[in-house]
Amino acid sequence: MHRQNATTTVQSRTPNALIRLAPDHGSIVRLADEDRAEVLGFLKIRPVHTLVMTSFINDNGVESELNRGVFYGHRDGHGKLDGVALIGHTTLVEARSDAALEALAACARKATTPIHMIMASGQDVERFWSYMGRLEAPRLTCTEALFEVGFPFAVPTTSRQLRAATMDWLIPVAEAQAQVAFSESGVDPLVSDRQGFLKRVARRIEMGRVFIATEGETLVFKTDIIAETDEAIYLEGIYVAADHRGQGIGHECLASLALELLGRVEHISLLSNVNAGSAHRTFIKAGFHQTDSCTTLFV
User: Does residue 86 share a domain with residue 211?
Assistant: First the structure.
């Protein structure tokens, strides 16, 4: 990529407050609620890849402690956004130029919220890590397959009934989600941040975004909507109780939920570790198909 003789800066909204970062083309700005329409328009260009950031903005606003981080944007030489990142506990990056990726990484070096994981499409996340100047390797690197479903798709016959979880199921749901998180990252959030984790699970339940299937007093399946926009829904935390696996519960419940949710959006997507072959077979039986991949770094 051709580079011009210019300077990348971080620009606050306080007059004359410019912080020099590194030689590059364009400028970084800390985004504010007044930028909402512009940022959402930028993210909408790739709605499936950026739906988590879009959903955070729709749910919480651009500036909110609930985002567990800060939104930054990179503007090219014409003043147009060519990169947006949420930099914080979960760092999400959408950069459409190398200059944007490098400048956003420079912001991440100065993050005040400890970064737990970094996600970006393709190979961007590894380049982002390199631009951050970290000498050590990430604690864990996971390549994940992106699965999607939309109409038309074959719906497996099922008698399974899913329902939105209530607060009565907070602890079983949190324990199930903690198992999923530990298997993916090696960190149990019920140990590392119990109160904060329970608070976040409770908020998701209150928003009607956790779906469960039960047998008596036993939770046998659950999944969460982590993000939703007008175009797409992103699921995470797909869980089947250990002693109920191999019975078709996973794909039946997932297909039933997909059929319901496709009544309000065009696409449903989820990410899964590329080594999780049995889970992938479940997704395919439920009507999903793989469309892309991304890399997640756990710091």
Answer: no
